[in-house]
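Lecture 7 notes. Example A: sequence first, then its structure tokens.
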Amino acid sequence: MTGEYFGGTIDSNGGMLGTSQMDGLLDFGFNDAAKDFTDGKVNSVDSYLQERELKIDNTKMMAQFLSSHDEDGFLSNYVDGDKGKLKIAAALQITAKGQPVIYYGEELGTSGKNAGA
């Protein structure tokens, strides 16, 4: 079961992971890494992903997302409307270890303040 611990990351999960409370959590740190990736900061993103992947297993899964109803849209808030960068971030999202979660409308480029809320 994948749940939400607002602001949660693999290192800050409120004790939800590895305790049978949740199998996975939304990864609120992933969109920052995706933004760095679109800016060409490949080495720092590689380090982040390697560290994250070492900690993920079947009792500690992370679900990477770019946008949600709780946050402003990735397209407008992180990459200033650049749909090319959104596609690059989405490629990272679906290929990184974990569970990619695509917020409704994101695949169409919907973005803005709390997009879709």
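Example B, a different protein, same format:
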Amino acid sequence: MMNTHVVINARSGRREGTAITDALEACVAKHGGRVTFHVDERGGSVEKLTRRALNAGASAVIAAGGDGTICGVANRMVGSGVPLGVIPMGTFNYFARSLGIPETAEDAVAAICDGEVRPAAIGRVNDKVFLNNTSIGVYSAILQQREDTYKQFGRSRIAAYWSVLRALVKFYDPMTMKIEVDGERMSVRSPLAFVCNSAFQLERFALQGADEVREGKLALFLADDVGRWGLVKHAAKLAARRMQEGRDFRLVTGREIVIDPGKHKRLVVRDGEKEPMRGPYRIRLDQRGLDVIRPKAGSRPA
């Protein structure tokens, strides 16, 4: 960590910012290195700041923020050979938690400073990276509602769950999709296609597919076309960890998934961040796509 660069999303956790910078400076100095901070004040500059860090010869880049921030940093770091460290400052922090990174700032910094570098599997949708999940359909409306709710009530997991219900009541637009999973083709009408690369996230919601993800597959969830109120009921079941494959959704697993929802450009969500992309969407895994700093084996989990 001789030349460590840190990319911070200032909007994710302002109160933790000072604690993180102080802890990182002390940690890197202890190892005889130096640290440079890049702060994304308004949002949207994470990838540009990561590129700047890499061009400056960073020996490690640490992403401090939520899953979307970490995904943005990772998108620029793939193929660089530079290891990524993560400090969770978001609402859910699925990627950091899946690595065993503690959710408190000082403990997260300690875990990185004493950690080890190991490869991590990443997902790709066309030419873009995702770490936990990617989706098309109603989830993009949920995210927009979530940001509006955060502006009113602040960031919290309760506010996030409430925004799901509000979005589903207002938005329902099922898609007719042609889907191919490892060469097997199907036609589906659904308001949501959700692809997950995180066994940790699936287990937190008591969803099937975690074992297959650990085996190196992607889990594709297709919501049934049940109307807006039916989808609201499904969301309530998901929050209560009572969703059931076959009854409430369809699950297909595979190593490569192609989703074609037609000619229109659609909003694609990657780890909570949305952007317009033109289909078809080719989704696949890169098993050793990113070097990540993790707690050493046997250390205390998050």
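Note on Example B: Residues 139-153 form the longest helix (15 residues). The radius of gyration is 19 Å.
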